[in-house]
Structure formats: C-alpha cells, structure tokens
TrEMBL record:
<protein>
    <submittedName>
        <fullName>Fumarylacetoacetate hydrolase family protein</fullName>
    </submittedName>
</protein>
<keyword id="KW-0479">Metal-binding</keyword>
<dbReference type="GO" id="GO:0016787">
    <property type="term" value="F:hydrolase activity"/>
</dbReference>
<feature type="domain" description="Fumarylacetoacetase-like C-terminal">
    <location>
        <begin position="73"/>
        <end position="277"/>
    </location>
</feature>
<dbReference type="Pfam" id="PF01557">
    <property type="entry name" value="FAA_hydrolase"/>
</dbReference>
<comment type="similarity">
    <text>Belongs to the FAH family.</text>
</comment>
<keyword id="KW-0378">Hydrolase</keyword>
<dbReference type="InterPro" id="IPR011234">
    <property type="entry name" value="Fumarylacetoacetase-like_C"/>
</dbReference>
<dbReference type="InterPro" id="IPR051121">
    <property type="entry name" value="FAH"/>
</dbReference>
<dbReference type="InterPro" id="IPR036663">
    <property type="entry name" value="Fumarylacetoacetase_C_sf"/>
</dbReference>
Length: 282
C-alpha cells in the first residue's frame, strides 16, 4: 500500500489515483496525514479490506511530506562501511545516533534554500514506526515498522562539525533539510525491504548509488538498538544513514549550489526532486 499527503490530506494511492481517506471512511479517520499512526492497526485493517477503489488524479506537485510532525526523528551516522571509510573514521560498533528536528521536514518537490556555501547531500532510506516499540528483539522489529520512504539528510557541514563538540543535530535541521516522500510504502509491497537500491544526483550527475543490504545496521537492527534505550512512538522517523559519495569527502570538496536540482530515489518507493535555491528563494 502507498500512503500519501495529497494537498495536505491523507490519501491512499491506487495506481495514479488518490483515495481521500477521510471522505472514503466517512470520517472514521482524519484527513491529517500525521494522525493515522495513533490508530495504525485499525487504519491498516480498514485500508486493506474496505477502502474503495478509484480516486482522483494527482500530479507530482500535489504531494507534500507524508509526515510533518513526528514526535521523534532519529538520524544514523556512518551506517555504510564505505561512507565511514571516506569520512576517515572506524566502522562503528553501535549505531551513531543524532536527531533531526521535525521542523526540517519538507516535501518531495519542495525547494531547499541554502543558508551557506557548505551544504551537502545525503540520500537515505527512511523508516516510519507504526507500533510503539520498547525492547523489541531484532527478529520482531519489522512488525513495528509501518512503512518506508525516501529521504535526504541535507547537512550544513560547517555547523555540523564546529567544535569543541560536533553539532550534528543543528547542522542537519535547517528548514527544508529533511525532504521525504514522495509517499510511504508498506514493507509488504517490497520484494525484499532489506535490499533496496538508493541514490541521488544533481542535474543528472550521479553522486551516490548503493544498496541498503550494505548497511552496517539494518532497519530491524536499528529498531532493536534504539528501542532498547527509549520507546519508539507511532509516527517516529528513522533516517537510516547515507552511503558513500557525499560532497564533503570528495577532493576537492563539493557542495550544493543554487540553480540546481537534487534528485533522489529509493527502489520500489519513489523519487524526490528538490530545487536548490539561494537564501532569498532564487
């Protein structure tokens, strides 16, 4: 099943048509795309058994961020061995966790304004929690994941790496620094949710390409490790880490520039197309 935010309203996608959930359910479920996770199991049962076919046509510009107000947004650093190597650090023995503040989230075609000349790209698979998870064993972790989506963990490197202690959460939380979408895909729709190709490019030049099977900590491992420390709540997001190819690790270093478009994808899910603009929006 594909679930989307269509013009600010929760929708189920059927091919190229959108079924408005509040209308189709006669008000049983709200139109707010964030509200559904409070009753995920009831929604899933209805959507799989009673949601009508058909719907209204949609265009790429109709889609907003599939979630905007999660309680918690986790970021995972250095989750691919080759990315750890290009960053000059050892492969982590446990997940390197930071947060992206929810106000950074934006939609799949939204413009991203650059606050500086040192803003980097990081394509990622993003997992959405559907059921509260506390001390969940890895073998049961997928049952707590509602859906997957594509994301960009855009990063202002000067702020992120400013000492004496690095400020990952601040450097990764400027407005627009968390494009996600274009919709959510439930894991059962994917042949192997543990092995998906992902990548990104700028104006057609490929910058990153990898497979999620190469993550050091898989989605189930991350759910298990995080839920061993704190509860994961319905609607929480986990940005699962970026593969090699970031601009900071290149020689010479490369960063995003106004007037370009950052294109990102995850196999079986969809694509993001985010124009990169100057601080004044041009």
């Amino acid at each position: 099943m594909r679930i989307a935010n269509v013009r600010g309203r929760l929708a189920i996608l059927r091919e190229d048509l959108a079924v408005d959930v509040e209308t189709a359910s006669s008000g049983r479920f709200e139109s707010d795309p964030d509200a559904i996770y409070r009753e995920w199991d009831k929604f899933l049962s209805w959507a799989e058994g009673a949601a009508p076919d058909g719907g209204s046509p949609v265009a790429p510009g109709d889609f907003g961020a599939p979630l905007l107000c999660p309680a918690q947004v986790f970021g995972i650093g250095l989750n691919y061995r080759d990315h750890a190597a290009e960053s000059g650090v050892a492969v982590p023995e446990q997940p390197a966790v930071f947060t992206k503040f929810p106000t950074c989230l934006t939609g799949p075609t939204a413009a991203v304004a650059l606050p500086s000349a040192t803003v980097d790209w990081e394509v990622e698979l993003v997992a959405v929690i559907g059921r509260r998870a506390e001390h969940v064993p890895e073998e049961k972790a997928w049952s707590h994941v509602a859906a997957l989506t594509a994301g960009q963990d855009i990063s202002e490197r000067a702020v992120q790496l400013a000492g004496p202690v690095p400020q990952f959460s601040m450097g990764k939380s400027f407005p627009g620094f968390g494009p996600i979408g274009p919709w959510l895909v439930t894991p059962d729709e994917l042949a192997d949710p543990d092995d998906l190709e992902l990548g990104c490019s700028v104006d057609g030049r490929v910058l990153q390409r990898a497979r999620t099977k190469d993550m050091i900590f898989s989605v189930p491992a991350l759910v298990a490790r995080l839920s061993a420390v704190l509860p994961l709540l319905p609607g929480d997001l986990i940005f699962t880490g970026t593969p090699p190819g970031v601009g900071m690790a290149r020689t010479p270093k490369e960063f995003l520039r106004p007037g370009t478009t950052l294109d990102s994808y995850v196999e079986g899910i969809g694509e993001l197309h985010n124009p990169i603009v100057a601080p004044d929006g041009r």
